[in-house]
Amino acid sequence: MSVQDLQAELEKAKRQVVTDGYEMSLGEIASLYKSDELIIAPAYQRLIRWEESQKTRFVESILLGLPVPPVFVFQREDGVWELIDGLQRISTALHLMGVLKVNGDLVEPLVLSGTNFLPSLEGMKWSSSQAGDMNVFNTPLQLEIKRARIRVEILRKESDQDAKYELFQRLNTGGSKLSDQEVRNSVLVMLNENFFKWIRDLSVKPEFKDTIQLTSTQEELAQDNEMVLRFVAYRRAPYTKGLDVNEYLDLAARKLSALTVEDLADEAEIFNWTFELLWKTFEGEAFKRWDGTRHSGRSMLAAFDVIGYGVAENRQAIMDMPNDVHRQKWLIDKVHALWKNQTYSNYSGQGVRGTTRMANLLPFAVEYFKP
What we know:
Elements: H1 3-16, E1 19-25, H2 26-34, E2 38-39, H3 52-64, E3 71-75, E4 81-85, H4 87-96, E5 101-102, E6 105-106, H5 139-147, E7 149-155, H6 163-171, H7 180-203, H8 206-212, H9 216-220, H10 223-236, H11 245-256, H12 261-282, E8 289-290, E9 295-296, H13 301-313, H14 315-319, H15 324-338, H16 342-348, H17 354-368
């Protein structure tokens, strides 16, 4: 490699990303949103993650004239903008002005709380149906908020199709409060919204939910979606040794989003069969540690990977067993014995890196669950 090679790569990369940008008022942004020329898709991120105090501080910053970080949009072929980054700021402004909608319905008006700088913000709102309500912004304050300006960075439609996905991931990693899978979900929506919906639909299947038994916090961070993605990725996008786990799942998500309707139907059938069998056999205990007498604790991700993938890959041979009784007894014995297996123990502990775990346990899973 040389400096010339680097310069050539840089020039090529720059041609793949075509950007533009300018200052806009919040009033102009609200007008674009109301006319469906600005889309803030709830599926990109959990729609509103800010607490009331965070929303109030943002409104306070606007009133004080403090600088607001830029937002990023992608310009579609039809000219409509998709919000890529800045959802919390833009949704708060729209919520304050009373125009924010979720699933087609207007959100309840935003009522602000007091702050150290502006304690009189307590109880303030944009408008009120009650005559004489004193906690309502007057026209000058409304205009001040509407005229507040924010820079909009535009990723134009001429950009390489992967550019918006890369931009979103880079903007929403590091200091972001989004989980890796929430960022990945947003990318999936951009890649193929039907594939994202397919994953989401599988994640709410009763047998799956009752088998993985996630906490409410884990579900909020979209871990159920990640586990569906893992299950399909292992089968359709084999893991490359050395890849960081999240990097692997990012690459797999892009590849899987191109699966045909027929491919997805096949995968859904295998997914449903696997988790119906595991639920019928273990009633929610399949991925919990077995101590020789009972299952206990929480479901473990390593157990999910090995058991789910191993059973799915050996589906036909397991289906060929004489009957359900024989099938379930065999599966119980294999899962119970897994917790004493040396290979599983060596690569499933907390100190084992994700790359090492996957490189060793995925091939092991296929062999271990061969009848």
